[in-house]
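Pinned message: reference record for Porphobilinogen deaminase
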Amino acid sequence: MGRAAVRIGTRGSALARWQSGWVADRLRAAHPGLSVELVEIRTRGDRDRNSPLSQISGGTGLFTKEIQRALLDREVEVAVHSLKDLPTLSPDGLTLGAIPEREDPADALVAPRHRTLEGLPPGATVGTGSLRRRAMLRHARPDLEVVDIRGNVETRLAKATSGELDAVVLAASGLHRLGLLDRATQRLGPPGFLPAVGQGALGIECRRDDPGTIALLAPLDHPPTRRAVLAERACLAALEGGCMVPLAAWGRDLDEGDGEGDRGGLLALEVAVFDPDGRERLDGSRTGPRSDPRSLGLRVADDLRAAGADRLLGLARPGGGP
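Predicted structure (C-alpha cells):
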C-alpha cells in the first residue's frame, strides 16, 4: 500500500477511544504489518463540559473541528468521528474514506425505577443533551420535565442510577460499544422514535489528496450504511439544519426480507422535524433507487420544506423564538 504507519485522530472520551481503537484493529487486520497510532485531540465540545450544546457559540462541529484541523495540517492521516457529530459541510480537502457498518441507530431509555417511557409518572425528570431527543420526548409525553445534561456516558448514566433524575436517554450504539447496554431499560427506536442523522455510524475521514490512506480505508466501508447515511445527511444539509436541531432521520435499504414485497434496489428514508418543545411534528418519507441516495434526501427535504419545516427549524436556531 506504500504506507507503513497511520495516525488516527480521536477525542479522549472512553467511547471515542473505543471507536478509534475498533477502527485501528480493523485496519491492522486488513493490512498485516501496518502500524496504527491513536492521537488524542481535545475539541471545543470537550473543553466546555457545562454549557448546553445548543448554547455554545459556533455550535456546528463542536466535537470535530480540531480533529479535522489536525488532519488538514498532516498531524494525523485519519480522523474517526461519531457520524452524528460530523457537519454535513466538510472542509475543503477532506473526504469520508470509509463508513463502516452501522450499529443499532436507536436511542435507549435508562429508567431504573420506572423502566419505560410509558411508565414514567407525570412530571418525571428525563435528562438529555439533544434537542432532537428533547422534542421527541416532549411530543410523546408533554407532561415530562426534560432537563439538559452533559458529560460522558458514565456521568450521564449515574444521574439515573443515583436517582438524581428519573431517566436519561442515550444512544444504544454507545452503550453497546462500552459494554453497558444492560443498563438500558427500553429501546426507543424507529419507526416511532427516529434517530439522529448518522446515529450509530462512524465517519472515517482522510485527505482527498492521500490515495494511500484512501486505499487503506476501503475495506472498512459498508455500502448499505453509506447509502443510508448519505441520504439522511443530504436531507439535513438541504434543510440547513446542522447537527443541533430537532430533526430525526432513518435511512435503510428495502429488501425482500423487510416484509414489504419485492423492493430490491430501493432505499427508504423517513425524516421527522419538530419545534423545540415538541408541540409540532412534520413527517416526510420516500423511497428511491439505491444508486442515488443524495437525490432521495433532497426530495424528502423538499417535501418537508413545503409542509413548513423551515419555520419549525428556525425556532431552534439562536434568536428563533416566536
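Pinned by admin. Summary line: The two ends are 56 Å apart (CA to CA).
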